[in-house]
Amino acid sequence: MQITETYKSLQGESTYAGLPCVFVRLTGCNLRCSWCDSEYTFQGGRKMTVEEVLSEVSRLSPGGGLVEITGGEPMLQEREVVPLMKLLLDEDYKVLLETSGERPLEKVPAEVVKIVDVKCPDSGEADTFHIENLESLTARDEVKFVLSSRADYEFAREFTQRHNLAARVNAVLFSPAFRKDATGARDSSHCLLDPQELAEWMIADNVPARLGLQLHKFIWDPALKGV
Ligand code: SF4
To answer: What digits encode the pLDDT tens for the residues 18-30?
Structure first.
């Protein structure tokens, strides 16, 4: 499989935010979100076998712990990433899969926590979510919407209501997008949508979702990779 990087940090998003986590970042993505902060994954990387990735994970976090498979879009390498997830589960790792949900998810092992990033209009990649994937979501999964405008918020709110997401998954997350060239200040000034404004909308509408901030961008310089 083609891997951009493996490293250990704190999980920055989802209900697992704040926990130590090994990240396995796969190379390649078929989308081009306007605010993407992972463009360095679009090409390059190095070839590794599934066993080599497993051994790197056990070096970084011996004997278990949290592992996130991310990218890029990891499901583009389904043939290798599904066996990798099974091996990690066999070795007692808690496995998170971060995906856009553009590719079918039915082959993902049931024990894996899927964190599905449904694209909103201002990402430039609206309507890419494979709607049949709703049937693959379980009570351990999470659905995330990265928002950069009021239009994105309304899309997320309506999608959540129409598909009764709060009853299907563990958490629905509304997260303000960060500027992709953000650097320096570790605060919400880099958010494309003011978290306070988003909070006020969510309270007014009583949406069954939680506001998520990208924790790692408040701990380290937002420009820093490998954290
Ligand atoms: S799906 Fe993820 S990696 Fe791909 S362009 Fe969008 S934000 Fe970037």
So the answer is: 999 999 999 999 9
User: Exposed, middle or buried, 57 (CB in 10 Å: 0-12/13-18/19+)?
Assistant: buried
Beta strands 2-10; 46-47: pairing state: antiparallel
Residue count (the chain): 227
Between helix 195-205 and helix 150-162 the angle, nearest 10°, is 40
For residues 95 and 67, the answer to whether their CB atoms sit within 8 Å is yes
pLDDT at 181 over 90: no
Q: Please name the residue whose Cα sits nearest to atom 6 of ligand 1.
A: 33
Name the residue with tokens 């306070």. 196
The tens digit of pLDDT for each residue in 40-62 reads 999 999 999 999 999 999 999 99
- Whether the bond between 28 and the residue before it is cis, its omega within 30 degrees of 0, is no
Record the tokens describing residue 35, joined without a space.
């605010």
User: What is residue 148's DSSP assignment?
Assistant: -
Average pLDDT over residues 96-115: 98
- Between CA 222 and CA 190 the distance in angstroms is 9
Q: β-pairing, 65-70 with 46-47? A: unpaired
Which atom of ligand 1 sits closest to the CA of residue 72? 3
Query: Residue 224 pLDDT > 90, yes or no?
Result: no
Residue 187: its pLDDT value, please? Answer: 84
Chain center to CA of 138: 16
Residue nearest atom 2 of ligand 1, based on CA coordinates: 72
